Queue: 3 jobs
Job 1
Amino acid sequence: MNVLVTGGLGYIGSHTCVQMIEAGITTVIIDNLSNSNPEVLNRIESITGIRPRFFEGDIRSERFLDSVFSQIRIHSVIHFAGLKAVGESVAKPIEYYDNNVNGTLVLLRAMRKSGLKSIIFSSSATVYGDPETVPITESSPTGNTTNPYGTSKWMVERCLQDLLASDPAWSITLLRYFNPVGAHTSGLMGEDPKGIPNNLMPFITQVAVGRREKLSVFGDDYPTPDGTGVRDYIHVMDLADGHIAALREVSKREGLHVFNLGTGKGTSVLEMLSAFSESCGHPVPYQICPRRPGDIAECWASTAKAEKELNWKATRNVADMTRDSWRWQSENPDGYEKK
Ligand code: NAD
Ligand code: WQD
């Protein structure tokens, strides 16, 4: 099976490519390097012994995509490429809708032209907005998004559903990720955000390694056991395995397939900090700060549907996540940049 991975040099894409290659799937990568480093390709090769074919280019260029599809017969596409920073999306909505929504439409047009009708899309728990109840199931209401990033994910989900209504031969899989963290156990690959990290785990790792002074904990007055926000953190390798399960179980089947990819367990900011300190062997300095606008108190997934229909379930715990994140950051203090 030949699978095209858009955004395959990014954080989640790179870990998924490693697991795909190790599962014997021929992996072809497209990335415009807007948020990734070409060094990732060397790391994938070091881990797997195979260097996947890589096409540098932008999914918004139909001519570029046509050329890739004319060179290799692809059976399915996993579509990670897009912009993902919530705060930046508020400042740059045009760029976010262009990359995420328009980019997906160009990709779908090129796929249709080449007769390829199977796509797995990287969606997000953000499409659920502020959930009325937890755990969140796949049939919980969506669309009440609070920022252009989240709205762009929801809009792509709608575009894909309308496409399927127009042509039932498509296989459309929406994977709604909860909070991906962790790194490859080799220490060779991990999350390497450009600039100041927006997310909790890369911020903690950069404080622990001495790149930043302290973590700001955004609010300790939420209606949660310790007052800090609770999320469903999932190890990126479990997430990667979830894509392989989707490729195997549903990507050849026509219709719409929607799954939450989470662990079903909530962890607070202070619990994550304490687990991380255990892993790195020293306390991580922090300060309680006001709530971050737009944050919700708590959110975790119901994992029942993925377990039943994908035969997949997360197996790595919070200690695995903090240990692997720390190994990656301590062995690569400047990420993929060569100093
Ligand atoms: P990432 O930024 O590390 O990876 C995205 C990759 O896509 C990058 O390598 C980037 O260079 C590439 N890219 C961006 N725009 C492109 C374009 N127009 N053409 C070609 N390549 C392009 O992000 P990630 O964390 O790996 O996330 C992957 C996907 O999963 C994204 O769609 C994101 O919205 C979604 N997602 C991420 C999270 C998370 O917390 N990381 C949670 C839910 C969903
Ligand atoms: C987690 C918890 C913060 C940073 C975002 C997107 C979501 C998805 C995943 C893509 C919260 C707290 C954080 C910090 C902190 N991405 N925190 N100090 O907000 O759940 O989800 O990333 O789809 O769409 O919204 O993740 O890692 O930013 O925050 O106290 O410096 O950590 O308040 O409780 P979030 P996060």
Job 2
Amino acid sequence: MKVGVLAVQGAFAEMEAYWRAQGAEVFEIRQRADLERGMDMLALPGGESTVQGKLLKDLGLFAPLKERIDGGLAVFAVCAGLILLAEKIEDPGSRDATRPETWFGVLPVTVRRNAYGRQLGSFRTVGMFDGQPDVPMTFIRAPAITAVSPDVEVLSTFDGAPTAVRWRSITAFTWHPELN
Ligand code: GLN
């Protein structure tokens, strides 16, 4: 499988290492020309969604990636990546909540950024993921998923709220599976 990892900001090195360890062929997406390589799956790493959204626009990556995602490209999204995909961001004070053109807005969920607090609100836990017990879960300035549409499959929860979801060809996490 050929995986394109968005590598403009954030934890892309960890994402690349993770997919290489799964035997995937991995390449970095840093500029438009990188998209010509073609991919079976797009991986959106954790980081700062506001920065990533801005860079996606500035680098001319936003529109071509959105077209591929809307067209059904498989996407594996972590944390900031999930925020970029979410249809709604419930974050009234946030600049990006008022600028929907800076995120993909395709995944029918609502997210609240930095829902557990900022850096000091980061934590680890262990839980059930997709029927598998004892999966380590690392939350780093994580968002919370506060609403999902009925056709979204919930793969894990924390305190009763969804923390990983699958919808069509998109799998998205509020925690960082690639770190464990
Ligand atoms: N707090 C970040 C944001 O709102 C996400 C953090 C992460 O990706 N681990 O974009």
Job 3
Amino acid sequence: MKTQSQVLVKKFGGTSVGSIERIEAVADRVLADMKAGQKPIVVASAMSGETNRLVRLANDVDPFYRGPAYDMLVASGEQVSIALLAIALEKRGAKAVPLLAYQLGIQTDAIFSKARITAVNSEKLLGYVHRGEIPIVAGFQGVTEGDQITTLGRGGSDTTAVALAAAVQSEACEIYTDVPAVYSADPRLVPKAREIPVLSFEEMMEMASLGSKVLHFRSVELAAKYRVKIHLRSTFETRDGTWVVPEGDKMETPVVSSITHDAATVVLKLFPVPFGPGFLAELFEALAEKGVVVDIITQSHNEDGQRVAFSVRDEDLNSAVTVVKQMVGNKTSIVQMEKMAKLSAVGVGMANHPGVAARFFRVLEKQKVPIHLVTTSDIKISAVIDQTNLGEAAKALHAEFGLDRE
Ligand code: ADP
Ligand code: ASP
Ligand code: MG
């Protein structure tokens, strides 16, 4: 597949800009593409490990703090990588312009750490391109109307890239990363995972929403909305990777197309809590107000009281516990289950094939894997299990659904 427009957004992830050598290699690649006729707009993440380091620093000061200062801190890694990349390009004789979100005008709402892009100054961006310059844009960050720095959530540079591609009406967006394609499972977890050459937006959205970190969920959502095809490919190879495209451009729909996991999962169990839906409404309202995204919820009761369990992302654990403690008395036990993982089988073909859930649970039973929470939809089934069981369970499910590479 070729894009018609020569203007192409190219996003380089953390590993791709993880050292000076790699930044130099990215500069070479961008210039080679330019010589071949492309007009690149580059987006870069922070050097690998850097954002984690910044998050740890913030947590060392106050693990409960979320707000403008947190976003200002964790957004700073991208400032370093785009400046280095710009220097590397200038050294090669190109005119490169490193741009932070406020300089370019990447506007967001004011939901710190999970901000959504509301506008991009596409005229300004295209201005650089038309002058033969290379804009090098900091991923992951935005700016509010009140001039505060925001971030888009971990992995959010993909979303910056797709938002820019949509803003300049590019037909495609290239995401360069440390794997050559989207696979049927995380290849680090399942060595027999196979590459998927073409995926529909719907399938990729499902995988991303279930925690596959290869693409940020919002990036796929935006790509689907604005019909921007995503080409995910390796920074270290020149061949094509995976194209994420509208459903109609795709041929096959296997029953299960991938086994996806999210190791950033924690579970909170509360017992006993006040009877009835009133308490649940209050609890989840209070969590939502604090920006905590609740994933799976289970509820049951017996004569001793009501029991509720739910999962959240590990970065939201402290906020969730704070909210819960404010809402329940000391008679309620709060069990925090950390080091959990959500493991899912995903496939749009599942809707018309009975028996997938049965096979899913039989595999976990054979592997003697305890299940803490379960949820299903038309096109996925997910279970929260202990991280210690993740590798074996993922491999076994991958084999069961015929996904193993020969
Ligand atoms: P980047 O820093 O380039 O954004 P990420 O670490 O965010 O890279 O995403 C790439 C990683 O996603 C891979 O190294 C891989 O371990 C992981 N991953 C998870 N699920 C998949 C999948 N289904 N296919 C490919 N990679 C996956
Ligand atoms: N640097 C940010 C992170 O580590 C954004 C990204 O890599 O996409 O989450
Ligand atoms: Mg990423």
